Amino acid sequence: MFKVGTWCKSIEDLLDTLKANGPWNTVSLRKGNRYIKYVNLPVAFDIETSSFYNGDEKHACMYIWQFGINGYAIHGRTWDEFLVVMAEVRDFFMLSETRRLPIYVHNLPYEFGWIKGLFNWIAIFAREERKPLRALTTEGFEFRDSLILAGAKLATVGKNLTKYKVQKLSGDLDYSLIRTPITPITQNELGYSLNDVLVVMA
What we know:
It contains 6 helices and 10 strands, in the order E-H-E-E-E-E-E-H-E-H-E-E-E-H-H-H.
């Protein structure tokens, strides 16, 4: 059952919730002489970043990530936390090169620039250099660009939703502030960040 807007405090909470609502269907597609199974669930990933200058040098850091499965979402502040979550998700769904979990990212080229060093990549399909539309890891995560599929920015996607009513929030995240993984996040800021993955899943 898809339920938009359920926040989980930990990966254990998320997986327990998924377990209670499973088992999950897979879709098999033939690729050459073998079949690839895809876990048939809405999954989304997003990050928020800050950029700043130190003298003449420009720097940037990721200060929060959001990950959602089937309407349930969690967040974390560091890449190490993200990799722990991804390892748990891989084991939970028994993912591999031939059993994959599609993960939708609204504007994948941006997030890919941040995660490209975190995984081993088998195949990347791109429309041009540094603009991937789809990227597959050895662990069975298949990141896909939902912006290209939707053909619209996230706010428009939210407004056009008919079955599940969730919209991209506006005005709650001041991008002029410099944030790091140890910067406290308000509930409004957290809601803004999490709604981005909820819109993509919906």
